[in-house]
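batch job 7 of whatever, protein = Polyprenol-phosphate-mannose--protein mannosyltransferase
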Amino acid sequence: MAPLCPAGGGVTRGRTVGPAARLDPEPPLAHKPHVSETIRKPWLVALLLAVAAEAIFLVRLSVPHMPVFDEVHYLPAARAMLALSGPANVEHPPLGKELIAIGIALFGDTPFAWRFMSTLAGSATVAGVFALAHLLTGRMRAGLVAAACALLGFTVYVQARIAMLDTFMVAFLTWAIVVLGWSMRRRGRSAWIAGAVLLGLATACKWAAAPYVAFAAAAFVHLKREDARRWSDLRIVPALALLGGVSVLTYFATFLPAFFYAQDAVTLKSLLPLQWDMYLRQRQVLPHHTYQSPWWTWPLLLRPIWYLYEPADGAQRGILLIGNPVVMYGGLAAVAALYHGWVKTGAARLLAPALLFTLAVAQFAVIPKSLGFYYYFYPASVFLCVAIAVAFDRWRARPWDEAFLLAAFALTLYFLPVLSGQALTDAGAFRRWTWFPGWV
């Protein structure tokens, strides 16, 4: 397999040269590569990162031995999917529940089984963050910084250890972006089609991924018009047709098990009306929830969510979904710096992670849902990790990136008891981690 960012391409004064054009019009910065940057097999590093992340996510995965937060909705739906008994949790597409069901089929109906497939999705997300940062910069160090931020950012860790749909959606979405970006530098339609398949799979987990199909289409048209040598064997109209057609077909293919339900089985005739019913359910007005929050509060960490805070497995335990303040606030500074750098240079590689973050948050300003929750911020929190790595790489901020990761690691150790559901001293122990009233 070729490197994620192939050698041999470059630009001079905005003129693209070589067989592998860079993403941006700025000339490559002259520097002596670090030895790690010369590694020719970044896919192997991505694989090792995924294995390491998986080992971390699996530790004490069965604790607590009870459904946590939205597992109470998705576990019954996964069991129904496994038994093909009939529809459940019909407001969401089926793929995430099918993946949870695979875990149950492999290991039995146990807490470990409920969450196992989520650990794989979380590990894939860490590897995908590495791949995306490496793709944008061509440097191993940036990829490793991004992966470390993902591991230390809290959100990937918590989501990888709970059976929720968002975990799967983000894994497919991250790799869709990587593959579509990589396809720009490779002839052949296979990578473009693979990216479209991954977008369809992400949408089949949760509809929140659907806008990224439009984002990908818009980015393709802009970059292709800017330089026709990008995606050299794809023309605009056929490429958009492939992107939309393949992603939609992939999405509908995930409904196949529903055709075999014992009751209320889906048919070709009912498949499209089912989508309208799902849409209406998404728009329904729901009662007030303790942890609801508007979209603009998520980047500011104003209202995280306690997935669990109660006695479980013989002790008081808590699981708090919150972003690592170092990574989240540092990520906001990185996004601002990348926008500033893009305005000055026009470099698309600086704009890409900043824009991904912005779109991931801003779409919830227009999505017609009556309630919002901090876990909707999960995709944006992942893109922040890429933004941090690209910003450090752009300004050659060594050893500040190491100091940044050390600070993030220190906070990870501090918050770990309420990220992993460890036994706490008493019911009032939450006060140690609730720095602000909105964190209670």
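notes: Residues 1-38 have pLDDT under 50 and may be disordered.
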